[in-house]
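Extended Data, panel c. Modelled sequence:
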Amino acid sequence: CVLPRWDRAAAPALAVALATLAVAVGLAAVKANRPGNFNIHPEPRSGGRLVEHGIYAWIRHPMYSALLLLALAALAVSPTAPTLVSAAALAVVLWAKSSLEERWMNGVHPGYAAYRARTKRFVPGLI
């Protein structure tokens, strides 16, 4: 098998906790921002609305946060150079993608600048 087994993870409890948190964050994002309002591309959907409730009251990009948490879970499973490089590359891509998305959202939603000022990008209270 190419993928490492979770029961043989370097830090199995941490891996499971991070993966569980990733799923919870992703589900909270879907609950607050119903399908049809968000887009996998950074460009805002035509007619989309700015979501500021639920998990979006604390972080602007919870779906990206969920992906980053899964990358950390993968590192807890297999703390190898390729896993670290992959997680770092994902973080760089998601930072760039969120930066582009934020510029576009600022142009589409008049309240976005105020929303951005009171929330964090990926981690409540930190980043």
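DSSP finds four helices and no strands in the chain. This feature is highlighted in the accompanying rendering.
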